[in-house]
Amino acid sequence: MVEPLALKDHTGESRIYFERAVWGFGILVCLTLVLCARLFYLQVVQHSVYATLSDKNRIQVQSLPPIRGLIYDRNGELIADNIPSYNLTVTIERIDDLDDTLAKIGELISLSDSQVKGFRKRLKRRQRPFESVPLRFKLSQKEIARVSVNQYAMPGVEIEAKLVRHYPSGELMAHAVGSVRRINEKDMRRLNRVAYSGTDHIGKIGIERFYESDLLGTVGYQRVETNARGKVMKVLDSTLPIPGKNLVLYVDSSLQRAASDALGERRGAVVAIDPTTGGILALVSKPGYDPNLFVTGIDYASYAGLRDSVDVPFFNRAIHGQYEPGSTIKPLLGLAGLVTGMTSPDFAIEDPGWFTLPNDERLYRDWNWTKSGLGGHGHVNLQRALYRSCNVYFYSLAVKLGIDRIYEYLRLFGFGLNTALDLPEASKGLLPSRDWKKSARGLPWYPGDTVNIGIGQGDMLVTPLQLATAAAVIANRGKWVSPRMLREGSELINHTSVYVPQDIELVPEHVWDLIISSMQMVVHRGNKGFGENGTAWAYIGQDIPYSMAGKSGTAQVVGIKQGEEYEEEEIQERLRKHAWFMAFAPVEKPRIAIAVLLENGGGGSKFAAPVARQVIDHYLLPRDQRLAVSE
Amino acid sequence: MSQDFVRRLPDSGYVYRHKSGLGEKIHLDFPLIFLMLCISLYGLLILFSAVEQQPGPVLAQSIKLGIATVVMVLMAQISPIFYLRLAPALFVIGVILLGLTYLFGYEVNGSKRWLRIPGVLSFQPSELMKLVVPMILAWYFHDRHLPPRTKHLVWASIMITIPVLMIAGQPDLGTAVIIGASGLLVLFLAGIPLRFILGAIGMGLAAAPALWFVLRDYQQQRILTLLNPESDPLGAGWNIIQSKTAIGSGGLFGKGLFQGTQSHLDFLPESQTDFIIAVLAEELGLFGIVILLILYVLLMGRGVIISLQAQDTFGRLLSGTITFTFFVYVFVNIGMVSGVLPVVGVPLPMVSYGGTSVVTLFAGFGMIMSIHTHRRLTL
Predict the structure, then answer these.
(1) Domain parsing of chain A, residue ranges
(2) What are the extents of the domains in chain B?
(3) What ipTM, to 2 d.p.?
(4) Which of A134, A165, A424, B263 has the fewest CB atoms within 10 Å, i.e. the most exposed one?
(5) Considering only alpha carbons, which residue of chain B is nearest residue A23?
(6) Which tens digit of pLDDT belongs to each residue from B11-50?
(7) Are B107 and B124 in contact (CB under 8 A)?
């Protein structure tokens, strides 16, 4: 088809173009106004929304964990310190391939599966993006160097220094101050997340736990400007953290060490109390453990090893160990007998070596009973019954007193109670009563039960802390002191939550004199011939340069059948008797009261008394006059 | 060009008179150059802030602007007749180069846009097409009856579609959109009937669902992201959320020059290139953007006036199209950064960091000046 000749109409074309160009420019201006409207909407109408977003973007609030309060002993020696620990941390947002990075780190430093597992757990608990999560704790200098050299190739992997708890004396103080542990998931659920943000540890037991709120301090904050990769560009403002309060305890580190040395490798506990204040001077439980292991996390095998050890090193015998008190309660029964008139200083019995209740064939034996019938203490008044630790005298006294009065008087000395002001975990022991037996056993109280209580056996259980407290109250002649760890640093001791028994005021002075002098004879009465010396004299009393009042106790672990003698050597080590010794000194002006327990230690006077002597020597005497530590 | 024997009627009312002056002699247009200078200096200031006040990139960009200016001046000296005659050859060469790019181009970030002759030069043929497509269409319509007939529209559409599809396939959606838009602008300015425009819009909407499946995954993702950036805040939505935050937090007068936190703390991606307007918005606020937009509108206004003064169809269509295409850059860029258009890689003209697009833009303005100053045509 032939195209028709078209003359170009220039005027027409310019008119068309003119119209289109003007239209186009109009549309252009309209669209520009649309853009302006959009920008107006974003920048003016929605300004506050985006301004907030922008601030949220760049401003992060970081917590500044407070420094945990230090714990000192009475002499200013550090018991709990904070030292820097180097952790390897990972910021997941800055890492492309976590597995690859972990593999790389694993080539540089040791990284066990359980550590990786723990890391992944912590990763899930993270609160904010760009928060670094620790992968390995406690890097050695060598490991730090290795990681640092390769750090350029691993963005997001960093070494962070953090202050962590350190117990300079290690095992020595473990049971006295307790320890901190890493905060776990269970803790997270009950804790105030704000107060603990940035803090990894919490006091789990002992003083560290009881005074947690004081030791923790107050968390601080800083508002920082970060870039999109979470790197802090500058600090905008900050509220500094307030360090936790420093605590000073009554504990004397060197006395603690002396007690620990005196116990040696034996299982047992020593609790020493200042009778004037109730301050606990030493609180040792052996075997112990190194609390530093728990600070940065202990591997499971080591933990299980400690946990399942037959010696139960985690078990704080000083406050949780509940044992029959044995003869150590005899002075208290004597006191009850004198006050109630059930006995008198001059009242004496003839001890044939055994005791029977009317209409009962069962023999209650004295400790020196023999089959041949030659045992027994013969003529025994209260004083002799105490320094010879005559059982028969106290069998009959107990029967005369009856369980109700025994309960009443022993309770005055804090048995069956936890009277410690800042050891809430301490066990209460067991002070039996009619009501207790009825509800616990469903049985009535039998006269035989009372007989056993007379020598501190049967159902009665006490802790070393309770016995030390009782010794302190005797030393004070009835003035009650509540045992406490803390000397200064906190107002936290809440007296209303702890039962504070009343001072024992109804006891006449001459009763105290008789009881205390009898206890003094336990240690000091010597060179009087067979059956006349104090039970502990031979072991600790011959060269003692100060006056000490004490009482030994020996608690049976297994029942001895009627008609059998107790043969020390024949009984397996773990079934041997527990050895007790409670004491205070100097008698005239008591400065220290003590309870020593040796688990399966044997006779109280022979084994526990020397430990008490060594500890008291350390406290009262200059170095050269102390009793040598027996190896 | 023998058909152009009819003399222009004097004072038809649709052609502006013009006065001869210095600009005409050296083939430059001073109002245009003044506005370009203003925008470029403003752009350098924003760039200075966006690159953390380092002088290096600003100097580099100044050099690129200098080179682009030289190119512009040179192109302004060449007579439009030359461009008219060269158009068909350039178009064929451009399509061949696009083909070669498809075969031999090297990949950057998953798209083949660059053609490199090792040791000699490397360039993007698609940049060339930004000028060649308006040229070929202006050439095609300059001796045909206007408004164009349907048959001519079909041919013109083919001339648009071939390079657009080739560039979209690289893939370079941003450039394809610009070139497609420039082609459609030629048709619009050539006076295609309104029913075609409305029909095309209708067909476009109808074809949209089909078009959806032609788009690649990441392109689909960009559109979804536009609709709901919060659906993927750390992935595809990140750019949009952060740029909107930057713009919105700027407020009326901004946080102060060099005080933008979004860009300086690296929250804002591509803050020196495609998203640079967000830096301006954050630091100088709505006020700062409106100044830039006014400069742009004045520049385009000058371009439109020049096109109205052009004496023939080729000059009118070419200068008009270059001017309006410039607006497409501005609109698409600000639209995407402020979250009303999907993210396609379109720089903000004369402000974004980068050399290639600046040279192309300035070359376009060189052609406009050439059309404006070579007006005693004997075609």
Answers:
(1) 61-249, 253-625
(2) 34-373
(3) 0.90
(4) A424
(5) B189
(6) 444 444 455 678 888 889 999 999 999 999 999 999 999 8
(7) no
